C-alpha cells in the first residue's frame, strides 16, 4: 500500500503512480483509494488529436504549411511524449492539389499535398483528411452531375496516389471525412451546393475512395450541433436508406459519425449535448448505435482566436482533463456500450501577436520581426504538456473509490502491463488528478489523501509525481512578470522554457 496527502491547487497532476494539482481560495478535502488489482474496463486514448485551419486565402495553403512557423508547430505537435497526439485534422487540404483538363483527360498535380503528408508522417503524425477544397478552382457547382463525376474521379485518383506514395498500411489508418461544417455555405467558398448536391458530393467521396481501395474509411458530416443543423440528419438518413447517386442502390457507407459539440465554457455542456444527440441517433436510426462517434471539434469554447486568460495557463489544461475524465466515467456507467472513438480539441493553430498565449493553441508563438532574417520562437503552454502527461496513462482503467463531495476534483487511474511477448517485465500505474472549476477563474485548494492498494510485490518500485498548475509548468505567468515583452531576449526565452517544464 502507498499513501500520502496532496494539496490540489486547482489544476492538473499526473503521476506515474501518483499525481497532483493546485489553486487558491476555499479549502476542501477528500480521499481517493486506488486499487491496482481491480481492472474495471478498457481505457482507450480517444483524445490524441488536434486540428487547424490555414489562414485566408486558403488557396495559398502551400505558402503557410511550408513556412518556418508551421514547420516548427508540427514538429512540436509530433514531439508530444509517447506519441500523445497522433492526428492533425486539417481544413482545405485539397487546395494543395492542382488539376486541369488536358486532351479531354483530367490531370492532377499532388506535389504540394505529398510534401505536406510527408511532413506529417516524418513527425509521427497522420492527417484527419477532410475532402475539402477546390483544386485550381476547377469546381463551381455540386448540383451539376458532370462535376460530381469529376469529383469522384478526383477522389479516386487522390486515394490511389496516396496509396502509391505512402503505402496502404499507412493510408488505411487515416480518417477521411466529408466537407467541414457543410451547414455554413461560406465554407464552400463560392461553390454552389444544395442539400441534394451535398448528398451527391458525399456519394462521390464514398465511391471514389472505394475505387481507390475498399479499406479506406469515410465519415461525416462534421457539422456543428446536430439539432441546429438539419443537414446532419439529411446525411444520416441518406446513408441509411437513400439512393446512392452512382450505384442506384439503397444506402451509402458511413464509417463514422462526426459532429462538433463544444462546451460554451462549461465542461459538462459537451457531454450533456452529446448524450442527447447520440440518443436521438439511436432512436431514429437504430443501426447506427454501433457506428463510431467522433466529436472532432470538442473544445471547451468556440472561437479559436478569442483571447481568453484561461487559455494561457493551467486552467485550460485542467478543463480538458476534466472533460476527458467525465467521458471515461460515462463510458464506464454505460458498460462501454457506446462506440465513442474520438474527442479532438481543435487547438493546433498558431497564435498571432499581440495575443501570444491566450488563443486556442498548444504553443505561444513569438514572431521576432526585428531580426534579419525573420525569426520565430515557440513556448510550450500547459495545454501542450498535459497531452504528454495524459499519454502516460495505461490502457486498462482501475478502480478508484470515495473521492469526497468536491465536484471540481476528479481522478482516473490506469495500469499498463507488459505485452505477452515483450522482453520487459515493467509494470506501470498512472493516475491523473484534476482540480477544475471549468473556465470560471474561481479556484479552491483541495487536500486529497491518496491511497494506492495492491501494488505488485517488487523491490524496484519508483514513484514519480508531475505537477502542472499555475506555479509549475506555467510560462505565461513568468512572461507577465517580465512585463509581457513582445520580443523576449534570448535570456528571457531561456527562463520561459525553464518554466514550461512540469
Q: Which structural category fits the helices and strands?
A: alpha/beta
> pLDDT under 50 segments (min length 5)?
9-14, 16-23
Lateral strand order in the biggest sheet: 1-19-3-16-17-18-2-20
As a percent range, the share of strand residues is 15-25%
- CATH domain class name of the largest domain: Alpha Beta
Average the pLDDT over all residues and give the rounded result.
91
* Number of spatially distinct domains: 2
Looking at CATH, the homologous superfamily of the largest domain is Glycosidases
Helix content: 25-40%
Net shape: globular
Span between termini: 26 Å
Supply the CATH architecture of the largest domain. Alpha-Beta Barrel
Helical segment tally?
12
- CATH fold-level label of the largest domain: TIM Barrel
Largest sheet: 8 strands, mixed
List its salient traits.
502 residues, TIM Barrel, alpha/beta, eight-stranded parallel sheet, 29% helix, Immunoglobulin-like, 25% strand, 20 strands, 2 domains, 12 helices, eight-stranded mixed sheet
Write the layout of secondary structure elements.
Blueprint: E1 2-9, E2 12-16, E3 26-42, E4 49-52, H1 61-65, H2 68-78, E5 87-90, E6 98-102, E7 105-109, H3 111-122, E8 126-130, H4 145-166, H5 168-171, E9 175-177, H6 195-212, E10 217-223, H7 230-241, E11 256-259, H8 267-284, E12 293-295, H9 314-333, E13 340-343, E14 363-368, E15 375-380, H10 382-390, E16 396-401, E17 409-416, E18 428-435, E19 444-453, E20 464-468, H11 475-481, H12 490-498
Parallel strand pairs: 3-19, 4-5, 5-8, 8-9, 9-10, 10-11, 11-12, 12-13
Antiparallel strand pairs: 1-19, 2-18, 2-20, 3-16, 6-7, 14-15, 16-17, 17-18
GO molecular function: hydrolase activity, hydrolyzing O-glycosyl compounds
Domain Glycosyl hydrolases family 39 N-terminal catalytic: 34-497
Keywords: Glycosidase, Hydrolase, Signal
